[in-house]
Amino acid sequence: MTHAPFSVVGIRGGAARSSRNSNREEMSFRFGQHLIKPSVVFLKTELSFALVNRKPVVPGHVLVCPLRPVERFRDLRPNEVADLFQAAQRVGTAVEKHFQGTSLTFSVQDGPEAGQTVKHVHIHVLPRKAGDFHRNDSIYDELQKHDKEKEDSPTLWRSEEEMAAEAAALRGYFQ
């Protein structure tokens, strides 16, 4: 079975196995209604994973998610919260260095009124540079609308190859 880096699926649980041929199994990651290919995941911890973004707000905008598909932050277990934020800290260090950032924005949109569009807890990690937005807090306006249906279209997404190349480069920071 082949699938795009972000495919809509109907599965339960945190991960699924897909068989490309009889000799090779590949682990996929669930992110809300999406099935994520390993090629776009650059870090996996005991309870979390990090992936590149198909439509980044700034270069290096990535996501850190719990492996267990949980819709709201309040429903995470304490060990999942700890692992998620430790992973976000490590990921922040890597993307800030890789994308020559000087600061970081971490954002969690918890629930639809907060702008959450994928029903799976995730932390946006965005490397920042001086002048990347005319008004510094405009980044939150961009996050609020970047995955909304009116603003989102497959024609605006990065290619699978571009995302896989970025993930491969970021994977190097964790080996």
Structural overview:
This protein has 175 residues and is of the alpha+beta class. It contains three helices and nine strands. The longest helix is centred in the middle third of the chain and has 21 residues, at 78-98. The two termini are 29 Å apart.
What characteristics describe this protein?
four-stranded antiparallel β-sheet; five-stranded antiparallel β-sheet
Number of helices: 3
Estimate percent helicity. 10-25%
Biggest beta-sheet profile = 5 strands, antiparallel
Low-confidence segments, given as residue ranges, are 6-13, 16-25
Which strand-content bin applies to the residues?
A: 25-35%
Instruction: Write down the Rg.
Output: 16 Å
Elements, N to C (H/E):
EEEEEEEHEEHH
What structural class do helix, strand and pairing data support?
alpha+beta
Inertia-based shape:
globular
Mean pLDDT: 85
Question: What is the fold's blueprint, element by element?
Answer:
Elements: E1 6-8, E2 15-21, E3 24-31, E4 34-36, E5 41-44, E6 48-52, E7 62-66, H1 78-98, E8 103-107, E9 123-128, H2 138-145, H3 160-171
